[in-house]
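Researcher: Structure for this, please.
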Amino acid sequence: MFERIKTALVLVVVVLSCMFATPSHYPMLILMVVVATLAGDEWYKLMPTSEGAQVSSTASKVYAVIIFIASVVTLYFKDLALLLWGGAIFVAIFSAYCIKNYPQYDAWYNKGLTLVGAVLITAAITAIFSVWLISAWWLMYLFLLVWAADSGAYFVGRKFGKKAMVPHVSPKKTLEGLYGGVAISAMIVIAVQSVYLNFNLLQHGAFLILSLLTVLASVLGDLIESMLKRRAGVKDSGCLLPGHGGILDRIDSLLTAAPVFAAGIYLLKLIGVEL
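Model: Predicted structure, token format:
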């Protein structure tokens, strides 16, 4: 437990320093590219292989380099990032069907997942960076939503959970935990709206819907990685973070939540709701 807490504190210091310590774009930009590259390496190692074969370490490194290049390109071209956000949202919607029907439906586990991983990872890091460019505090809000949904689901599910949400994908996640996580996230949304946002009723409603969609997307992101790891037969995506597993294990919820939130902010701006 001490090792887990120590790693978490280091991660928090690194991320918050990049977010708030300087107005320069470069620390956050570098952090996003590094995270994407490491996550890409871990994602490739979860891909299907021939029976009895192991994933080539060289191939995973090549894939990580591809993710690195894709991340750098999309971080500089916002129009491409918008397409990726849309792709990530499509993946999230389709994954709901796969999760519901796992393990009976298993056709999703194929080489095409390399493209899916590239879309999800690059979409997430460009979305995070885009939100940070608007305001570091809005990125903090996104992180709080995801953290509240995850932590609320864990503690409420542990105390009151009885009915498994998707037992074949993640047996310990319960419907009661899901409701608890959504409820705690909703409290954060209402608090932020009440104290910080000077919106009319319609704008408040649109922002509330976006926030709740982001929370639900974070749950899907968590389940996508859980299903992928279960199908690949591993417990963690990696061992880079002591006590936490791999990079993907820390950003799984953001793979889908960040693109939903960033795309939502973009759409709200189109209808005159400025954050």
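Researcher: Any notable elements?
Model: The first strand starts at residue 164 and ends at 166. The chain has ten helices and two strands.
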